[in-house]
Amino acid sequence: MKNFRRAALAMATLALAAGPAFAFPDRPVQLIVPWAAGGGMDAVMRIFANGLEAELKQPVTVINRTGGGGVTGHTAIATATADGYTIGGASPEISFFKTLGLGDLTPESIDMFSRVSLIPAGVTVKMDSPYKTIADFIKAVKESPKGTFTSSGTGMGGSWHVAAGGLMKAAGLPADQIRWVPSNGGAPALQDLAAGGISAFTGSPIEAKAMLDGGRVRTILLMTEERHPNFPDVPSAKEAGLDWTYQNWFAIAAPKGVPADRRKILYEAAERTMKREDVRKGMADRGITPVWDTPAELQAYVKTFGERGNAVLKELGLAKN
Description:
Elements: H1 2-18, E1 29-33, H2 40-56, E2 60-64, H3 71-79, E3 86-90, E4 111-120, E5 122-126, H4 134-142, E6 150-152, H5 159-170, E7 179-180, H6 186-194, E8 200-201, H7 209-213, E9 217-222, E10 247-254, H8 260-273, H9 277-284, E11 289-290, H10 295-315
Helix pairs in contact: 2-8, 2-9, 5-10
């Protein structure tokens, strides 16, 4: 009887020491977005977060961590506690930080699950701008001293800056013909455009939808091969005779080192999220292309994208490494 009591006591002690069993996640998950609220990435990640909440059965809170041209937010993702309760959105800028001398963060610094979306770059001007077509705009840029025309949409050397530089090269101009005005994302850049602070916005017209609908701005080019179904009246770069296409991608990521069982739960929930009709429709209705990659597809895409973008950064004179 004494042996039985001792065994029972030992088992009870072990159970208490182990703590209560629970299913992951048992509390809210936060999703870090490195860019400002109201921009393209913010829109994508909020649609994604709503779907992920339904899959995880826990709240997913979007946290905008802006600054440093995307460095602040991406660093927050990379250095977060690897317990599975912090994930984030990675943007193309993580492919450029090292080249720009902004630190050692690279796509390999975080655990990227997959891209979840693509949004095309464009050229958007004020509604009362004299430039009705991309030909008008490029002609004026060519006839003006370097730096007369300005654009914005990301930090210095960010993705939309690369889009602008590549477009200038395709037009037979120096990549830095347009002077870049750094911003914390599409939303503040568009406010600057509407106020007359910059000549053009070379981010995505998807970010400008509210202003487009309100008649405050006009998109005169999409940096795509074909016209976009959400912007049927806007010519593509190919139509305009410009050999340059550019799309921003956004990926779901976590800090490296999340326990394998928790990572599996997050990864599979994210994959299911991107199969949800409400998520896919929510993105498509806004002109956002939903995506889910295999690991091999993701690795190949990010590598090619980084090489292409970093070549433009050298043309812009911004490469430090």
